[in-house]
Amino acid sequence: MKLKQLESMLGQLQQFSNPKVELEQYPTGPHIASRMLYTAENSFGDVNNKIVADFGCGCGTLGAAASLMGAEQVIGIDIDSESLEIASLNAEDLELDINFIQCDIRNLVWRGSNVDTAVMNPPFGTRTKGADMDFLSVALKIASRAVYSLHKTSTREHVKRAALRDFGASSAEVLCELRFDVPRLYKFHKKREMDIAVDLWRFAPKTNQGN
Fold it and tell me: What span is annotated as the signal peptide, if there is one (predicted)?
């Protein structure tokens, strides 16, 4: 699938109707989601015919992108039941077969299929300090091949150090810097829209040296 086609299809998806600030719910826009999964497949072969988990899937944009890029199986995991309802409707609208699980990522004990690749847009950790690192730690334990994740560019050194030193990643690479559009969703937002610089990372867990 071509990048523009993927972005166009993701642009049709419903997003949060009642976002929860305590969960730092911000929609992953089609621009970023399409580039994330397109790069994962076309540069690294980490999506097609692979089992992909979308951690903190929200309304299911990254999982939908993985499915459209040919993933064998996609599993979306989120703590919020309302988000999962929207994600399920989005999958139905695009005629995608995605499994959704309601669970707090931090309490996740994985007994399902072996996950090849994890994709995620974790909370930035501004409301709950360290939430982004909690997601990364769990993802690196579960994914056997690669973890793709978005983190604020301002935290780049911290993210790299934590991944390699604390979470056992064999590699941590910034693939590109992107602009994350944050629409005015919450009362404390002063501006109608804000751009945040984010890094798209690819982490390889220790079990798979460089695939």
Answer: none
How far apart (Å, rounded) are the C-alpha atoms in residues 116 and 140? 11
- Measured in degrees and rounded to the nearest 5, phi and psi for residue 190 equal -85, -35
Containing 194, the helix (H) or strand (E) segment is: strand 193-205
**DSSP letter, residue 120:** E
Kindly state the percentage of the chain with pLDDT values over 70: 82
Sheet holding 98-102, edge to edge: 98-102, 73-78, 51-55, 115-120, 143-152, 193-205, 169-183
Q: How far is CA 33 from CA 5, 121, 125, 155, 186, in A?
A: 12, 9, 20, 20, 22
Strand positions, DSSP E, 79-192: 98-102, 115-120, 143-152, 169-183
Tokens 């604020």 appear where?
Answer: 152
Select from 86, 83, 140, 82 the least CA-distant residue to 108.
140
- If 0-12 CB within 10 Å is exposed, 13-18 middle and 19+ buried, where does residue 95 land? exposed
Question: Distance between terminal CA atoms of the chain?
Answer: 22
Q: What is the DSSP letter of 114?
A: P
**Burial status of residue 20 (CB atoms within 10 A of its CB: 0-12, 13-18, 19 or more):** middle
Nearest-angstrom CA–CA distance, 55 and 105: 7
pLDDT at 126 over 60: no
